[in-house]
Amino acid sequence: MNTGRHEFELIAWIRQQTRAHDRIPLGIGDDTAALAFPNPANCLVTVDMLMEGVHFTMPPATPRQIGHKALAVNLSDIAAMAGRPLAAVISLALPRGVPAKLAEELYAGIEELADQFDVAIAGGDTNSWQGPLVISITALGETTDRGAVTRSGARPGDAIFVTGGLGGSLAGKHLDFTPRINEASKLHEAVDLHAMLDVSDGLAADLQHIVEESGVGVILEESEIPISPAAQTAAEEDGRSAWDHALSDGEDFELLFTVSGDDAARLLANSPLEIPLSRIGTVVDGNEMQLRTAAGKVIPLPVSGWKHLL
């Protein structure tokens, strides 16, 4: 690796920066890490890959932001299952010839977020090649005593909720968002979550996952979709409506979930969260995705969002 350091020197530097953790009796330095999890029977595993030119451009994204996002997208997946993150391993392919400082800043972004959520960095792999920067992180977590929340538990009559505001994430949120780990935990304690996921591909596209996995239909309320200020700004710049940005931009990394009508009333009366929480629709029989417009007309919901081409 021609980064001003040999690969083993970089690994040694990473090892020095990685704090010791009682969940990792054997960490960086051996062929595998040894993990000591409180409840291994309920282990959650998720992996996400970020590629330069696909998920970010550098610049304007900084290496520290890329490191943050690489771990954050994994923690957001664990939040979507109402789980608790425990550890992570990192695979990094650096463009040949980049300075060592880039790798150091990238790992600093990972470590900052890992410290915030008490995630142990257990190890990984580094390499160099002629292509762009690629980073893949595998995160491990555990379920709570109430179990994992899946996409398949939505029931007719459920209320549909989303946290935060939606749309316009390319203005910066997609690089520096905070995964909703704490919010998912509070919701899981307060009510019976029937189905949940994180909004990564766009509200409409991700809601379709719940519809398909649960075998239900939905009616969204146009007037209740929480539109972020960034979506308003994006609309002024590109001519698309702010509502369309909120529906389809993606990479909001907010929680989208369903609960019973009784639990919906509890959440609206006394939300356990310190961020906005919006009731945006209802689960119904059938398999259609519909929208009730501000004028009260029910029409098919346009579905668009991020899709990877294979």
UniProtKB/TrEMBL annotation:
Q: Which residues form the PurM-like C-terminal domain?
A: 173-291
**PurM-like N-terminal domain mapped to chain residues:** 29-142
Q: Name one GO molecular function term.
A: magnesium ion binding
Q: Where does Mg(2+) 5 bind?
A: D201
Pathway of action = Cofactor biosynthesis; thiamine diphosphate biosynthesis; thiamine diphosphate from thiamine phosphate: step 1/1
Q: Which HAMAP family match?
A: TMP_kinase
The UniProt similarity line reads: Belongs to the thiamine-monophosphate kinase family.
Protein known as: Thiamine-monophosphate kinase
Q: What is the species listed in this Swiss-Prot or TrEMBL entry?
A: Symmachiella macrocystis
- Organism ancestry: Bacteria, Pseudomonadati, Planctomycetota, Planctomycetia, Planctomycetales
